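Protein in question filed below.

…
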Amino acid sequence: MEPLRVEQYVVGMVQTNCYFAINDNTKEALIVDPGASASKLAEIIEEEKLNPVAILLTHGHFDHAGGAEELADRYGIQIYAHEAERETLENPAINLSGWEGKERAYRADCYLKDEQEIDLAGFHIRVFHTPGHTVGGCCYFLPYQNVVFCGDTLFAQSVGRTDFPKGSASELIRSIKEKLMTLPEDVTVYPGHNEITTIGTERMYNPYL
């Protein structure tokens, strides 16, 4: 089993968690939700002599996808997202990029399916489609490392907002219950904002569930 080290960087105007999922054997790294500060993240990559392999987007809102293209082009790597998230990424009215003052479209290079399994940076990853916060929101579960990157689907004692375009509270809660709450309770949850938690903690204390 490849050793995983997760580094957390808070980026952008709404304090988004960007994560580096690093294979300590090879220095290969996955960049999860680089929503802003691409040049600063690149500085860290170079300081640590990391080898970025891919960018994983949990969803297409500006604060998660905003820095992805710059980093992907800089390192010649691909951006992954769920196939149902194409419209969110490409439509400024849905991706909320206007909040930063300039509307823009984002891209993904590889569109994934629900329950698809992929191997990147030495890690085996299961993709869970978890709509509700956005239509094509997804989570990335690394079963052998016992971690899940869940974007704005699940937070510590909270859940993602559903008052943005195409959000659905009922879909979000169903997604969390059917996809995330079935995971082992000691799985570490890396959310898109605020502090890190575990499945067991959320199963016990999350008032929305």
User: Anything to note?
Assistant: Helices lie at 38-47, 62-65, 68-75, 86-90, 92-95, 169-180, 199-205.
